[in-house]
């Protein structure tokens, strides 16, 4: 968002000086501008998490962001609930021209994918299996 605000100042279009960030939910933790940690576990409500992600996407799109990144450390719970299916990803963005990016973080490394990628469900399943070992 800082980049968006800088670009707006350069073009003469000023946004609100201190843009408010979406309020974090229990399982969504802001770690940087337009970057959040999704903390989902087996008992997490995927509906509440999905609602939070959708609200974040709407808010950041309203402020001019082209994408939002989510760091996933527990892909297994989300994968089981169908969070990474293409249909669910379309619901999360709700027709907005914004991309959701995911970084799957495990002890073996990090893999980046975006919500519109055909390989997102593959990587989610792969990292779910790695976590289960």
Keywords:
133 residues, alpha/beta, 5 strands, disordered N terminus
Summarize the structure in words.
There is one protein chain. The protein has 133 residues and is an alpha/beta fold. It contains five helices and five strands. The protein has helices at 2-11, 46-62, 75-80, 86-93, 120-132, and strands at residues 28-32, 35-38, 67-72, 99-106, 109-114. The chain has a five-stranded mixed β-sheet with strand order 1-2-3-4-5, covered by helices on one side. Helix 2 links the parallel strand 2 (35-38) and strand 3. The chain is globular and about 40 Å long.
Strand order in space, largest sheet? 1-2-3-4-5
The main pleated sheet reads as: 5 strands, mixed
Poorly predicted segments? 3-25
| Alpha carbon gyration radius | 15 Å
Blueprint of the fold:
Blueprint: H1 2-11, E1 28-32, E2 35-38, H2 46-62, E3 67-72, H3 75-80, H4 86-93, E4 99-106, E5 109-114, H5 120-132
Parallel strand pairs: 2-3, 3-4
Antiparallel strand pairs: 1-2, 4-5
């Amino acid at each position: 968002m800082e980049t968006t605000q800088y670009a707006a100042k350069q073009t003469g279009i000023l946004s609100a000086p201190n843009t408010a960030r979406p309020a974090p939910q229990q399982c969504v933790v802001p770690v940087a501008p337009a970057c959040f940690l999704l903390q989902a576990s087996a008992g997490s409500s995927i509906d509440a998490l999905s609602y939070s992600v959708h609200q974040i996407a709407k808010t950041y799109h309203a402020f001019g962001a082209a994408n939002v990144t989510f760091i996933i450390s527990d892909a297994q719970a989300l994968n089981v609930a169908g969070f990474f299916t293409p249909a669910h990803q379309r619901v999360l963005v709700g027709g907005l021209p914004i991309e959701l990016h995911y970084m799957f973080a495990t002890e073996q490394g990090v893999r980046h994918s975006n919500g519109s990628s055909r390989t997102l469900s593959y990587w989610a399943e792969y990292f779910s299996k790695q976590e289960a070992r």
